[in-house]
Amino acid sequence: MIKDFKGTVVCASKYFTDLEMRKLYQQGVFHYGENRVQDFLAKKTKLMDLNITWHFIGHLQTNKVKEMINEITYLHTLDRLNLADQIMKYANHKIKCFVQVNLTAEDQKSGILPENLDQFLLEIKKYDKIEIIGLMTIGKDLDMVATEKAFMMLDLLASKYQLPYRSMGMSDDYELAIKHHATHLRIGRKFKELMD
Fold first, then answer.
1. What is the Cα–Cα distance from 33 to 56, expressed in whole angstroms?
2. What is the chain's mean pLDDT, rounded?
3. Other CB atoms within 10 Å distance of the CB of residue 63
4. What's the rounded Cα separation, in Å, for the pair 146 and 158?
5. Per-residue pLDDT, 137
6. Which segments of the chain does DSSP mark as H helices, in order?
């Protein structure tokens, strides 16, 4: 199914060494997403010679923005205004961002609650170094019904706000994400078997 997917498959590369990523690149995988700033910077340095499109897909702490924000093309986890403030302070170009929305109502998950999204998108318009290109969400572990509901809601919200991109779907639930018009999948441990 993933071979017929017309969107962008981002390899969640925390599962891979830089040497494995080099091999994947040779197989035609050009988009990589990292969860931790230190790992990302180390891998980017080692893979400098490759024309990789870098995504940051983990929770981003405000004190880490300065060292990484100009090294990525996409941030999938914009979820609060104080993070946007730091991006404005340190970015030297416009950063393409997905707003992370918490659609499973889990306290341990980051993201704007859907009822606060309207206000957030209104306020973020003042930030001229941030380009909101879409919405992102994470499904609920071991609960495909709640996950599908979250993906369906993200699709509806992206349409409502006329945002073209939807970042959703990981190794266990990417098929549901495709069903609900995902444009960016974040595939980690299953990447090797999906590539075969």
1. 5
2. 95
3. 9
4. 18
5. 98
6. 18-26, 37-46, 65-68, 81-90, 114-124, 144-160, 174-179, 191-195
CA atoms of 139 and 95, how far apart (whole Å): 25
Q: Where are the domains of the chain?
A: 2-195
What is the reported pLDDT for 48?
A: 97
Give yes or no for a contact between 144 and 173, defined as CB atoms under 8 angstroms apart: yes
Distance CA 114, CA 16 (A): 33
Q: Which CATH superfamily is domain 2-195 in?
A: Alanine racemase (3.20.20.10)
Q: Say which DSSP state 21 is in.
A: H
Amino acid letter, residue 14: K
Give the pLDDT confidence of 86-123 residue by residue, as tens digits.
999 999 999 999 999 999 988 888 999 999 999 999 99
CB atoms within 10 A of CB 144: 13
Q: CA-CA distance, 138 to 131, in Å (whole number)?
A: 21
pLDDT tens profile 10-26: 999 998 999 999 999 99
Average the pLDDT over 54-70 and give the result.
Answer: 98
How far, in Å, CA of 169 to CA of 190, rounded?
Answer: 12
